[in-house]
Design a protein that fits this description.
The chain has 138 residues and is α+β, with helices and mostly antiparallel strands. It has one helix spanning 2-25; strands at residues 38-39, 43-47, 57-64, 67-68, 73-80, 90-94, 96-99, 102-106, 113-123, 126-136. It is 17% helix and 44% strand.
Length: 138
């Protein structure tokens, strides 16, 4: 009888954990990073650090015609790409303003290699997407 009670508790905990996981996985990570955006060559985005599987935060510079872009909502999304073509492995992260045209992006790339993605810049005049390739090192 005692073993059935323990098994019941483990079962309930497992079911609750499963339901919580399903709920979290069905929610898009950041709705602002899922919006439609146009390509605009006057915008550019660069990462200051050499991307690495060790780092968990990056400094992103966003400019338009060489001038810092301030007051925008910025996010980074990327998928593992290149020869491996691991499209199921991706990251999405909302950036935090850190100064004129500077944004901190908390993101961890879990595998070395080329990641293909975009920086989404959301401003009142419209959304702009800047394609970006991130070559992650060990």
């Amino acid at each position: 009888m005692r073993n059935i009670w323990r098994l019941s508790i483990v079962f309930v905990i497992g079911v609750v954990s499963f339901l919580v996981a399903i709920q979290k996985l069905n929610r898009p990570p950041f709705s602002s990073c899922q919006q439609e955006a146009k390509l605009d060559p006057s915008y550019s985005a660069t990462i200051d650090e050499v991307p690495s599987v060790v780092l968990a935060q990056y400094h992103l510079k966003v400019t338009r015609n060489g001038e810092p872009v301030d007051g925008a909502q910025v996010c980074l999304r990327a998928d593992m790409g290149g020869a491996g073509g691991m499209s199921g492995m991706g990251v999405v992260s909302q950036a935090i303003p850190a100064g004129p045209g500077a944004y901190d992006v908390p993101v961890r790339f879990i595998m070395e290699g080329p990641w293909q993605g975009a920086v989404l810049i959301q401003q009142p005049q419209g959304n702009v997407e800047v394609p970006i390739t991130v070559n992650v090192k060990l």
